[in-house]
């Protein structure tokens, strides 16, 4: 058995016992695939982790940068209290349409708002609305702009908020200083910002599983 096969088996074992899917989640994945969306949604056990982090935070206001088909959005939205709110930003109108249908099927259409357009245009407009500080921000969009998304996350959060940055390992390329791929460089810039920013305390964890060799960073806003 190859390492990758073993990673898949272990992830399947964890998911079956700790993060089993239901018809709503499975339908979100099926409809996303049928619409031709790329198969890059978080794994089920990663979705459950996001949900637990939101619950641990007692999150009432969540911001997601990068919706895709709404699979991770459903996991996060289910962590909200009845009066909670989630805003999710999606660049591609087609992806947003699929996500909107998936969220409606999940019964989250009143709590979750999908905003369409480049996130770096949506974020300033969101800030102009002066929303309550977001308790959790999940960044999972184009990686070249990760540091810029992190800057906006800092503006839109407050002391104690949690920021989750996905896909930080880039198949191990993050550690190759000679690799200047825009996604690697953008992710590296975000990690360096977490390391050096006086308002952030964070770490990163590499993972293996059905998503291959990957990982995520967590950062807590200090002040």
From TrEMBL:
<dbReference type="InterPro" id="IPR029063">
    <property type="entry name" value="SAM-dependent_MTases_sf"/>
</dbReference>
<dbReference type="InterPro" id="IPR002935">
    <property type="entry name" value="SAM_O-MeTrfase"/>
</dbReference>
<dbReference type="InterPro" id="IPR050362">
    <property type="entry name" value="Cation-dep_OMT"/>
</dbReference>
<keyword id="KW-0949">S-adenosyl-L-methionine</keyword>
<keyword id="KW-0489">Methyltransferase</keyword>
<keyword id="KW-0808">Transferase</keyword>
<protein>
    <submittedName>
        <fullName>O-methyltransferase</fullName>
    </submittedName>
</protein>
<dbReference type="Pfam" id="PF01596">
    <property type="entry name" value="Methyltransf_3"/>
</dbReference>
